[in-house]
């Protein structure tokens, strides 16, 4: 390692050092070279001797050391005689750099009235010299200007207060010059300085102050509540939130109030209640200003509040009349008071000094029926119509008072008139008026509780008395029990009620109120006798239908009748359509036999079962019109009539004809020919078969297949009573005459 002094100012290169190899015997066969930082520029070497010189002025603050490599070679062969070696040239420091405040200028702050020694801020100076070599880089601090107010720590650079009475209101900032000297402040040391600005921050050390001790304002007595009277402001030498203040009213606070304008910090004095020139013409309002944020450290400096007087002069105006009382009047009158009687007197006066005459009237929009009248001069309210508390218990009217000389000066007042009740309505039984008992009711059983309604409202409350009416006093079935709570109970007096003997009882009940005067009414309680289950639940009553119909309103009855009428019309329309269709079918030929094959595979319940199949097929089977064609031979009636005629006409011959099936064949053939010749007849045949219909039929099967062979002795003569359609069937099943059997 080699050392070289910085800042060399000589004219010759500065000798640094020498490199040498053991192989060098001084014969000049060795060549020395260097490489690395500054080699050949800053540092040069003598190839023969190995001496190193610095050709430039060095600055340690720019570069403190240089690293180089040395080589020794054979001058002829240029071979390395030794391995390359590395060495360092270190620049040796001298005190050539003054301390510098790299962060300046500085700005700090300290609160006013801070105690001595309060730390304000710290300043720092740096020295580029080598701190490890001598004292070139050792810095000390001092205050060049302002040392009477502030001081600085010599070694640390901390600025502190030197006095305790810093006052922001007197001076709000200070500028200091702080010097930093190296060489520990010794002679010959270098120094640097910086400017430090110290701002004095505010504390709440000043109370608010009103510039004036009295303010004067004027306001009209007619000004509305909330109208501002004036603005005042208290000043505060402090700043920021320390100037925030609130205002209070110490006197006359019942008529005036004060608020604070948050932007201007002004006090706004406004009206709290209506002013009256006639009562008081001048008001002295004491307003106090108080700091919101009081610092307890400075309480001993004095009171942080101030007061002033706001004198408010009230000016007179023409005012409308004033009612007494101002918030309305309540009057009472009996509902039986006669027309023209006095209800009450309303009072109003002119509040002005002149006290002008006042006239009264009723706002007819509040009394359209003109139930009340008022005397325009005295304000006496009288009755104009008969009252009824049950119709309207209260009447609310508005009375208008106006100055006689100035009709624009008017005011209104609400008058509430309460109608006092008199006993003019008899009590009545509350609905329902019906009750029910079971046939097996026991004696003394409570079957119903009755209550009473009364439109009157006596002040002492209702009290009703119950008893049986004279016409019901001889009643031996029920008793009336007055419960004494304005209700009464109905109890049975005996047992063994029978609804078949008597299903309804009427019990007249007399109800009397307590008056005065006492009024009464008679109501009838209808008691129905009903059948009940073992648990006492009603099952049926003879009067149920009557009760339901009686409960229907006239509108419901009309609707029910309309529905029934519509149903009747629909039924008649359906029957008419059926008859019309039937007439069309029978218009062709009375003996037209259509072969409709109708097959029933189910087993019905016999001839009594009319819902199993369409009975119209049976009813219309032989009901045919007469044939229209004249080419088909003589006139032929329906088969049942023809066969019946044969049986009536001739005994055994009729029986033989009935058994002759050729007769049926001829009949059918003739009908087929008529159907084929008549183009208006539908092209189909009708044939009807009847199978077995069930075991429950007392006539067994109606089929003619087994009829002739049956041995049943049952009498079927009742078939003749079923009408013309069953006469043919009755002819088949009628028992033979004894004469016919004998022959």
From TrEMBL:
Its main location: membrane. Residues 21-101, 102-210, 211-323, 325-429, 429-546 form the Cadherin domain. One of its GO terms (biological process) is adherens junction organization. One of its GO terms (molecular function) is calcium ion binding. The chain crosses the membrane at residues 556-577. Pfam families: CADH_Y-type_LIR, Cadherin. The keyword Membrane applies. It comes from the Eukaryota. SUPFAM superfamilies: Cadherin-like. Gene3D superfamilies: Cadherins (2.60.40.60), TCF3-CBD (Catenin binding domain) (4.10.900.10). InterPro entries: Cadherin, Cadherin-like_dom, Cadherin-like_sf, Cadherin_CS, Cadherin_Y-type_LIR, Catenin-bd_sf. Keywords: Calcium, Cell adhesion, Cell membrane, Glycoprotein, Membrane, Metal-binding, Repeat, Signal, Transmembrane, Transmembrane helix. It is found in: Cell membrane. GO terms for cellular component: adherens junction; catenin complex. It is a single-pass type I membrane protein. PANTHER family: CADHERIN-22, CADHERIN-23. Cadherins are calcium-dependent cell adhesion proteins. They preferentially interact with themselves in a homophilic manner in connecting cells; cadherins may thus contribute to the sorting of heterogeneous cell types. PB-cadherins may have a role in the morphological organization of pituitary gland and brain tissues. This is Cadherin-22.
């Amino acid at each position: 390692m080699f050392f070289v002094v910085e800042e060399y100012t000589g004219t010759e290169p500065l000798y640094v050092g020498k490199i040498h190899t053991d192989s060098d015997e001084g014969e000049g066969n060795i060549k020395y070279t260097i490489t690395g930082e500054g080699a050949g520029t800053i540092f040069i070497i003598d190839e023969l001797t190995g001496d190193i010189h610095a050709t430039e002025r060095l600055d340690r603050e720019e570069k403190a050391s240089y690293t180089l490599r040395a080589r020794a070679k054979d001058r002829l062969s240029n071979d390395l005689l030794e391995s390359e070696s590395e060495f360092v040239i270190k620049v040796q420091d001298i005190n050539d750099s003054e301390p510098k405040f790299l962060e300046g200028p500085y700005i700090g702050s300290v609160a006013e009235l801070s105690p001595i020694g309060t730390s304000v801020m710290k300043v720092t100076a740096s020295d580029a010299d080598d701190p490890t070599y001598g004292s070139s880089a050792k810095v000390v601090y001092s205050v060049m200007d302002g040392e009477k107010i502030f001081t600085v720590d010599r070694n640390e650079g901390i600025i502190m207060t030197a006095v305790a009475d810093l006052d922001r209101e007197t001076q709000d900032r200070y500028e200091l010059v702080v010097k930093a000297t190296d060489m520990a402040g010794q002679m010959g040391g270098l120094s640097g300085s910086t400017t430090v600005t110290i701002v004095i921050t505010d504390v709440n050390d000043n109370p608010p102050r009103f510039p004036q001790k009295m303010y004067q304002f004027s306001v009209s007595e007619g000004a509305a509540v909330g109208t501002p009277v004036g603005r005042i402001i208290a000043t505060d030498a402090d700043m920021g939130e320390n100037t925030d203040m609130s205002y209070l009213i110490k006197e006359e606070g019942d008529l005036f109030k004060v608020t604070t304008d948050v932007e201007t910090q002004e006090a706004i004095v406004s009206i709290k209640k209506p002013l009256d020139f006639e009562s008081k013409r001048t008001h002295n309002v004491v307003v106090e200003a108080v700091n919101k944020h009081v610092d307890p450290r400075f309480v001993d400096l004095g009171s942080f509040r101030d007061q002033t007087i706001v004198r408010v002069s009230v000016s007179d105006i023409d005012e409308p009349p004033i009612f007494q009382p101002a918030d309305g009047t309540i009057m009472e009158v009996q509902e039986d008071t006669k027309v023209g009687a006095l209800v009450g007197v309303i009072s109003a006066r002119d509040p002005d000094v002149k006290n002008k005459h006042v006239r009264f009237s009723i706002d007819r929009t509040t009394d359209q029926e003109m139930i009340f009248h008022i005397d325009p001069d005295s304000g006496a309210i009288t009755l104009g119509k008969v009252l009824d508390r049950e119709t309207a218990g209260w009447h609310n009217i508005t009375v208008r008072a106006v100055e006689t000389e100035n009709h624009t000066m008017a005011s209104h007042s609400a008058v509430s008139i309460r109608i006092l009740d008199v006993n003019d309505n008899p009590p009545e039984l509350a609905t329902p008026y019906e009750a029910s008992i079971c046939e097996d009711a026991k004696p003394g059983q409570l079957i119903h509780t009755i209550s009473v309604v009364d439109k009157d409202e006596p002040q002492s409350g209702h009290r009703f008395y119950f008893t049986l009416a004279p016409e019901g006093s001889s009643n031996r079935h029920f008793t009336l029990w007055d419960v004494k709570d304005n209700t009464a109970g109905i109890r049975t007096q005996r047992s063994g009620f029978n609804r078949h003997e008597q299903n309804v009882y009427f019990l007249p009940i007399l109800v009397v109120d307590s008056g005065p005067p006492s009024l009464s009414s008679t109501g009838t309680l209808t008691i129905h006798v009903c059948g009940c289950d073992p648990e006492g639940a009603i099952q049926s009553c003879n009067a149920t239908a009557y009760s339901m119909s009686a409960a229907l309103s006239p509108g419901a009855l009309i609707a029910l009748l309309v529905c029934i009428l519509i149903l009747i019309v629909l039924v008649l329309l359906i029957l008419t359509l059926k008859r019309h269709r039937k007439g069309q079918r029978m218009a062709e030929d009375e003996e037209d036999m259509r072969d409709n094959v109708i097959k029933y595979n189910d087993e019905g319940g016999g001839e009594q079962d009319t819902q199993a199949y369409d009975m119209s097929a049976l009813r219309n089977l032989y009901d045919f019109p007469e044939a229209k064609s004249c080419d088909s031979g003589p006139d032929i009636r329906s088969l049942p009539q023809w066969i019946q005629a044969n049986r009536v006409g001739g005994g055994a011959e009729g029986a033989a004809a009935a058994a002759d099936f050729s007769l049926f064949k001829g009949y059918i053939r003739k009908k087929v020919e008529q159907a084929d010749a008549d183009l208006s007849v539908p092209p189909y045949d009708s044939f009807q078969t009847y199978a077995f219909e069930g075991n429950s039929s007392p006539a067994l099967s109606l089929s003619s297949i087994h009829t002739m062979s049956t041995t049943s002795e049952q009498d079927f003569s009742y078939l003749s009573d079923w009408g013309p359609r069953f006469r043919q069937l009755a002819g088949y099943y009628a028992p033979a005459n004894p004469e016919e059997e004998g022959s």
